[in-house]
Amino acid sequence: MGSIFSPKMPSLPPIQPLPPAPSAELSAEAKQKIAAEQAEIERKRKGRQSTILTGPLGDLTEAELEKKTLLGS
């Protein structure tokens, strides 16, 4: 019974068209800026190998391997 006395739903407003998408092309200076930033990141990057200075048995540098131990080897 409530549907007889309820107000009618207003019509929807018309759909607005989407604005044009920005161009995907980058200018030459923007490409140079991105390349410089990437080069800076690569220069600052350190690998895992450069941060680990010891092996599973401790420091294994050449000087340590040539040293005589108390066991005679």
Give a topology summary.
Layout: H1 2-5, H2 28-44, H3 48-51, H4 62-66
Care to describe what's here?
This protein is mainly α. The protein has helices at residues 2-5, 28-44, 48-51, 62-66.
Class from secondary-structure proportions:
mainly alpha
Topology, number of strands: 0
Radius of gyration: 35 Å
**DSSP summary: helix tally:** 4
SSE ordering: HHHH
Which band does the percent of strand residues land in?
under 5%
Give the biggest beta sheet: none
Instruction: State the end-to-end distance.
Output: 102 Å
Shape: elongated
Share of helical residues:
40-55%
Average pLDDT figure: 77
- Low-confidence segments: none
Summarize this structure briefly.
41% of the residues lie in helices and 0% in strands. With 73 residues, the protein is an all-alpha fold.
